[in-house]
Amino acid sequence: MAETTELGRYLRARRAQVTPADAGLPAGTGLRRTPGLRREELATLSGVSVDYYTRLERGRETNPSTAVIDAIGRALRLRGDAYERLHDLAELASGRTADSDEPRPTDDDTVRPSVLTMLEALRPLPAYVVNRYNVMLAANPSGRRLLPGLWDWPAEQRSITRYLFLHPVGRELYVPWEETVIKSVAHLRAIAGGDPDDPRLTALVGELLLKSPEFTRIWDRYDVDERSGGTKTFAHPKAGAMTLTYEVMRLARTGGQRLVTYQAPAGSPDEEAMLKLDPQSP
């Protein structure tokens, strides 16, 4: 019987990503038909019976204790958002989630005037505002030029995740592309953990599953991540090659809007390239 719950699908996907060596187990001999850990190996590492773990993965056990989920999370070497995602799915499976009666976050895509003023004040640094679905809602001139072609799409289609997979420039802009899209899809997985029935998320994911085999492959990894900053390298068609640091800041009382800013060390070749994005830069 195949797994029938989101928890089961998550467990199977994460189990496939842990090798026996990762878990401190001997590799053994002969061909392994299962990528990653076998069910019996994960059950042993988690301190539960093989029968119990199999029922959990197949959706026939829907009320695992917190201690069991903790043990499975440790055996799968989950950390941070991925660990929290496991607990969220266990709560959803058991029906004991505390968030079930809370309203879905507002879909108001209006950016406050004060935030628009901030975007302009950040020039010449590229900056933009995205909603919880990674749809770009507003940007300063450098922010718009950072992602060529995104603003050619209708407003509701300007998801950066969609751009990465379906726009020809988006597929060439980020270096390495694979690393960038894995992080972007992991963000969508994090959203899904809080509200798997969100219609806007379902529509976006459904479109990408239909149109992009690469998205399907990465979506099925069940990675979960909500990053607050880091570095990105661009092969920009106008500005050239540049590596920029970025920060992501949540905007209060917006239903999930985030301000994203980019910068480069003063006087560096990366800053020189970045400044080409602002039409007012000398």
UniProtKB/TrEMBL annotation:
Organism: Streptomyces tabacisoli
SMART domains: HTH_XRE (SM00530)
Stretches that traverse the bilayer: none
SUPFAM superfamilies attached to this UniProt entry: lambda repressor-like DNA-binding domains
Positions of the HTH cro/C1-type domain: 36-83
Record-linked CDD domains: HTH_XRE
Protein name: Helix-turn-helix transcriptional regulator
Signal peptide span: none
Gene Ontology terms for molecular function: DNA binding
